[in-house]
Amino acid sequence: QVQLQQSGPGLVRPSQTLSLTCAISGDSVSRNTVAWVWIRQSPSRGLEWLGRTYYTAKWYNDYDVSVKSRITIFSDTSKNQFSLHLSSVTPDDTAVYYCARASPALNSWSQGTLVTVSS
Amino acid sequence: DIVMTQSPDSLAVSLGERATINCRSSQSLLYSFNNENHVAWYQQRPGQPPKLLIYWASTRESGVPGRFSGSGSGTDFTLTISNLQAEDVAVYYCQQYYGTPYTFGRGTKLEIK
User: Fold this and answer.
1) Positive or negative CA dihedral for A104, B28, B61, A7?
2) How many Cα atoms sit within 13 Å of B100 on the Cβ side?
3) Which residues of A touch B109 (CB under 8 A)?
4) Is any Cβ of chain B less than 8 angstroms from the Cβ of A25?
5) How far apart are CA A22 and CA A117, in angstroms?
6) DSSP state at residue A91
7) Contact B95 A106 (CB under 8 A)
8) CB proximity A67 to B under 8 Å
9) Greatest distance between any 2 Cα atoms in chain A
C-alpha cells in the first residue's frame, strides 16, 4: 500500500518561496508508468493540478501554464521523495496542497497541508 | 486547457435511492491508441483528500463498493450511486487525464434528503 507523507511550513510570507516535500513509502519515485503530482485546492479555484514529475529513461516534468514561471517539481531518489517549490507567492496561492501518485488516475493522496500566504 | 463541467452543483437524494452526477468535457477524452476514455471520478469527504472511485470512465478502483458505477464516452460521462448510503455524503469530482493540465470539474455536493 502506497503512503505519501507531506512536510513543509503552513505559513509563507508574500514574495517568498513555498516549499513542500512528499515522502513515498510502498513505491519508488523512479518507477516507470507512475507520475508524482502536486495538486492544490481552494474555495475559489477548486482542485487545481499544478504539475508532475516522472521517470521514463530520464526525468520529465509537466507544469500548469498558470504557474509555469514559478514552479519547480523535482525528485530525490536517495530519499524516495519529491518536492514542490513555488516562488513569488501571493495570498492567491493560499490553499490546501496535496501530493499524489498517478497511474494515470490519482490513486494515492497525501492528507494535505494548508498553506497560508500572509505577512 | 480541457474544461470539465459538472452538473448539478448539488444534489439531495433519499437513502436507498439512486444519485446521478454528470460531467461534460470540452473535447473528446477517448484516446484512440488505447480506446479508453481518460476520465476518473473521486469522492471527497469533509477534511479528507479526494479518493479515487472510478478510472477509465467505468473501471471501479479496488475496494470501492459495487453501488458506484461510471459510464459514458467521448465528452459525456456519468457517475451513478445506487442504493445511497449515509456514508456517501461527500463532494464528487470528475477529472480528465487526457491532456495536461489534468483538469477537474468543480464538484457536486451530495446530501441526504
Assistant:
1) positive
2) 18
3) none
4) no
5) 20
6) G
7) yes
8) no
9) 43
If you measure CA to CA, which chain B residue comes closest to A4? B49
| Closest C-alpha among A70, A73, A97 to residue A15 | A70
Residues shown for chain B: 113
pLDDT (tens digit per residue) in B11-43? 999 999 999 999 999 999 999 999 999 999 999
User: Which tens digits make up the pLDDT trace of A108-118?
Assistant: 999 999 999 99
Specify burial of residue A15 (Cβ count, 10 A radius: 0-12, 13-18, 19+): exposed
| Residues in chain A, overall count | 119
Contact A65 B101 (CB under 8 A): yes
> How far is the C-alpha of B2 from the C-alpha of B98, rounded, in Å?
9
- What is the DSSP code (8-state) at residue A89? -
